[in-house]
TrEMBL record:
Record localization: Nucleus
Superkingdom: Eukaryota
Region (Disordered): 190-241, 419-443
Biased composition annotated in UniProt, kind: Basic and acidic residues: 198-208
SUPFAM superfamilies: beta-beta-alpha zinc fingers (SSF57667), POZ domain (SSF54695)
Mitochondrion keyword on record: no
Lineage of source species: Eukaryota, Metazoa, Chordata, Craniata, Vertebrata
Domain BTB: 24-92
Single annotated GO MF: RNA polymerase II cis-regulatory region sequence-specific DNA binding
Record function comment: May be involved in transcriptional regulation.
Protein name, as recorded: ZBT8A protein
UniProt GO cellular component terms: nucleus
Annotated TM spans: none
DNA sequence: CTGGGGAAGGGGCCC
DNA sequence: GGGGCCCCTTCCCCA
């Protein structure tokens, strides 16, 4: 006969003991904050602690101290609360750090829930995007502003994914016991499962589309296939960690001040052997790969290569980018002909020696000789429709990307530019204030 | 088949 | 934390 409430009461009792610091035999030091816990509970919950404590238990039967600098005390609070309650308090703000910490601690279930949470958030973003794109294809210039809300919205706390019915409080994912066994939600259709696209697949997709179709409409957003998110979900939580991913483990008894660094999920070695100050600074580990970065913002940026999120669409051609600077670079190169180099002979051209050729949404420069050789000097020279070619300058942020209405219509109509070349005179001295500038959709 | 060039994309880091 | 620049690698196209 099995009494189902026993597990719950047992966990409850252990949690109570933890709060009252009863029988706690393990101290976890996170950025100066001390957490008390029971070794057996940590051992049973985390592959990392299992490894650590099995090692230290050989050395001592007394209390153990583990020191972490890889995540914040707040993050560890979420982890530890989960260990002792089965409730994981995820929000859009903490999910990345929690997942990173869970990866660190080799807590498979937590990682899975975080992934589901993120995927759910992305799905919300996708829905918003779909809704956004279905509203209007013409009102593009104003939509860029809204889109940032859409993308960021998916990560907000209020966008928390649906959780188990047994979860007592909103925004908390229940794990453990029956609640966890029932936790198997897939928020939307299979489309969501295909949302994630591996880097390679995604790139192939986008390149083919842009090259073969010339224009990548919003509806051409890559249909994300099975991703690293999915792939990694199948991996054990204790996947290989890089050498940089290291934490100090201090054993208080036999070697009071001799620390151990814990890397690669299995090795315990004296701290002094490999820990350097530089490695201490590298503290944000990607939960999907072995990459470690110093700044949280860099991790956030890096994660886009796993999630496939591309919040920055080029307004001229529709191609989407994961980073604003890539969009800017793309725009300058492809649509603004910023390079003062003849595309054919590679010679430097000036406003006197060369002209800009517009080929669909693409622009590049040709010297007068190459223009004549190409036999396209008879193509109409449309000075009226000339768009500025100035490289965007600082302090001109608002105006530099503005896309003249005439050009807009040009761009939208002409997709296969091979039959519609427009030559423009190069005039870098033109007054910027009067320029009609091409403007990508910057958030 | 191969090498060069262009474009995309990722990381580091400064402001 | 975001924006942006620089550097590097990878991929693809083309001669």
């Amino acid at each position: 006969m099995e009494i189902s409430s026993h597990q719950f009461h047992l966990l409850q009792q252990l949690n109570e003991q933890r709060r009252q610091d009863l029988f706690c035999d393990c101290n976890i030091l996170v950025e100066g904050k001390v957490f008390k816990a029971h070794r057996n509970v940590l051992f049973a919950s985390s592959g990392y602690f299992k490894m650590l404590l099995s090692q230290s238990s050989k050395e001592t039967s007394q209390s153990t101290t583990a020191t972490f600098q890889a995540f914040s005390p707040d993050t560890f609070t979420v982890i530890l609360d989960f260990v002792y309650s089965g409730k994981l308090s995820l929000t859009g703000q903490n999910v990345i750090e929690v997942m990173s910490a869970a990866s660190y601690l080799q807590m498979t279930d937590v990682i899975s829930v975080c992934k589901t949470f993120i995927k759910s958030s992305l799905d919300i973003s996708e829905k918003e995007k779909d809704r956004y794109f279905s509203l209007s294809d013409k009102d593009v210039s104003s939509n860029g502003v809204d889109r940032s809300c859409v993308y960021s919205g998916g990560w907000r706390a209020e966008s928390s994914p649906p959780h188990s019915h047994s979860s007592p409080d909103p925004g908390t994912c229940m794990m453990g016991g029956n609640a966890w066994s029932n936790f198997n939600y897939y928020p939307t259709s299979q489309r969501n499962a295909q949302q994630q696209l591996s880097k390679h697949e995604q790139r192939q997709d986008s390149i083919k589309k842009s090259r073969h179709l010339g224009l990548q409409q919003p509806s051409d957003i890559p249909h994300y296939k099975s991703s690293k998110l999915e792939d990694r979900a199948a991996e054990p939580a204790g996947h290989a960690a890089p050498a940089e991913e290291q934490v100090h483990i201090d054993t208080e008894v036999e070697a009071p001040h001799v620390g151990y660094q814990f890397g690669q999920g299995a090795e315990v070695m004296p701290r002094g052997l490999a820990v350097s100050q530089q490695e201490h600074e590298m503290r944000f580990k990607c939960p999907f790969c072995s990459h470690v970065v110093k700044r949280k913002a860099d991790l956030k940026r890096h994660l886009r290569c796993h999630t496939g999120e591309r919040p920055y669409p080029c307004e001229a051609c529709g191609k989407r980018f994961s980073r604003l600077d890539h969009l800017s670079s793309h725009f300058r190169t492809i649509h603004q002909a910023c390079k003062p180099i003849c595309r054919k002979c590679k010679r430097h051209v000036t406003e006197l020696t060369g002209q800009v050729v517009q080929e669909g949404t693409r622009r590049y420069r040709l010297c007068n000789e190459c223009l004549a050789e190409a036999g396209i000097d008879s193509i109409r020279i449309d000075l009226e429709a000339e768009a500025p070619l100035e490289f965007p300058q600082d302090g001109d942020k608002d105006s530099r990307w503005h896309y003249g209405e005439d050009n807009r219509s040009d761009v939208e109509i002409v997709e296969d530019g091979s039959t519609d070349l427009v030559i423009q005179q190069v005039d870098d001295s033109e007054d910027e204030a009067e320029e009609k500038e091409v403007k990508p959709n910057i958030r």
